[in-house]
Amino acid sequence: MPGIKLTVNGKTVEKTVEGRTLLVQLLREELGLTGTHVGCDTSQCGACLVHVNGESVKSCTMLAAAAEGAEITTIEGVSSRDGTLNVVQAAFQEHHGLQCGFCTPGMVMSITDLLRVNASPSETEVREWLEGNICRCTGYHNIVKAALSAAETLRGAQPVAAE
After folding, report:
1. Each residue of 35-66: b (16+ CB within 10 Å) or e?
2. In the Cβ-directed half-sphere of 44, how many Cα atoms lie within 13 Å?
3. What is the third-level CATH fold of 3-77?
4. For residue 88, which of 115, 126, 51 has the smallest C-alpha distance?
5. H or E segment at 151?
6. Model pTM?
7. pLDDT tens digits for 40-60?
8. φ, ψ for residue 51 (rounded to 5)?
9. Per CATH, the architecture of 87-155 is what?
């Protein structure tokens, strides 16, 4: 079995993994980072989304061995060390962008990546970006509102007030 070395949420990790081990399995089962969810096992729902070297990746379709040397950020790694929510998480809370919460980690990671590449997305751009993330509870309205509010906050503008 190959050994891999990677950085997960700022900490160096060395693990021996079977060649067929998925990144999501390594994160959840070996490292105990259960915020990354498995929703479909087919790369459809986005609940398993993490950042690999700063890019969004559905961890249910990436082999752990392919992450050799990579820097991985999971939902557990986006808040401050003291537990303070990041801008996107706080916007989700403020704008009620979650109900059951199952899709929320993937949504937060996806929106964080969107705001990295587009600091001022339109509502249409947010909706298009989230096409790879499925939420069965919210209807996306408040998720989109949270994304737009987070974008405004990061640009230094006054965030959208919750209705």
Report:
1. bbbebeeeeebbbbbbbbeeebbbbbebbbbe
2. 6
3. Ubiquitin-like (UB roll) (3.10.20)
4. 115
5. helix 141-155
6. 0.90
7. 878 889 999 999 999 999 999
8. -105, 130
9. Orthogonal Bundle (1.10)
